[in-house]
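Example record

The entry below shows one chain as it appears in the dataset: sequence first, then structure tokens.
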Amino acid sequence: MAEDTRPRLYSIRGGAAEEPLWREALGERLRELRRDSGETLAETAGRAGVSPQYLSEVERGRKEPSSEMIAALAGALGTTLGGLTEQVSRELRRPRGPAPRAGVPMLSAA
């Protein structure tokens, strides 16, 4: 089975694992939807009415898009705002293991 190479979506604050930021989970889900449909940034961005550079920033969790922008991106990817919100919410509710401490390598359970 292939190793999961997706970035870990938790933030480390005060040495404890915390939930990922909404914009990070949203960006990852948008990128997954776009890639699953075989589209380029330019194609999806064009239908949503944004620049490819802006969409790239959103996908990387660097921008906090407005609800109108999220709805436009959802529509461009063939889903609804509600459907996208449910998908991101599921990711945010997913149990996470402890965060690695600085200087301590994570050990695999394999």
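Notes for this example: Strands lie at 11-13, 16-18. The first helix runs from residue 22 to 36.
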